[in-house]
Amino acid sequence: RLYRTGDLARFLPDGRIEFLGRTDHQVKVRGFRVELGEIEALLEGHPRLQRAVVVARQDGDGRSRRLVAYLVPQAGEDGAQAGPPTVGELRRFLKAKLPDYMVPSAFVFLEALPLTPNGKVDRKALPAPDGARPTVDTVYVMPRTEVERIIAQVWQEVLQIEKVGVHDNFFDLGGHSLLMVQVHNRLQQAFGQDLSIVELFRYPTISTLAEYLTRQPAGPSAARKGRDRAQKRKEALGRRAQRMKALAQKRTAGKRRR
Length: 258
Prior knowledge:
- The chain folds into two domains: 1-130, 2-Layer Sandwich (GMP Synthetase, Chain A, domain 3); 133-258, Orthogonal Bundle (Non-ribosomal Peptide Synthetase Peptidyl Carrier Protein, Chain A), CATH 1.10.1200.
- 39% of the residues lie in helices and 16% in strands.
- The protein has helices at residues 36-44, 87-95, 146-159, 177-191, 197-202, 206-215, 220-257, and strands at 7-11, 17-22, 26-29, 32-35, 49-58, 65-73, 106-109.
- The longest helix is centred in the C-terminal third of the chain and has 38 residues, at 220-257.
């Protein structure tokens, strides 16, 4: 049986354990209680990272929180920072040791962590993620079709990222199951067709999902045509109602004159 005491320690080369302090930064994320110090200790064990701090920040909608990791890359031999690992590398590194809900949604690289006058990390001074596309393993390719552009727009809004590539993996960009539910709802509204959320997990890139949607008998193009026809009918009914109203007003005015 493993008991998490909340103490932070590390093994020394000679096998002894060095006590580093308490990990009292416990938060609740996606319904799970998370020890931030446990994630930080794992990240600082990465050979290309020097320091790591993890905080829980409010999502843009203010209804949920997500984990954000702030990292200082390891310095090279000449004192300059070595090349930082990609977000994909870090996710794989953490997923080998942690459950998905403990893997940060965003990674921010800094030259140094902000400190308080007492020399402790000033967590309140850590900057919010800037919304830039993270350094994932895939090359950026912009959306090429209308379907890809619609999916990309939804991803950008849900993930709070300025741009996403059609070959980027939703989960490498910081997505998780709860965010996928939001994507599912928005895509159904955008395309006006039934879409199984299982297919979103099966096709986690914009290019593969767009291809799947286009192959469906009532695909996005058919759905858009249906919406266009409905909108035209609505506009036609509106114009007809206006004409009827104007005609009724004329009749009323004529009766008054008589």
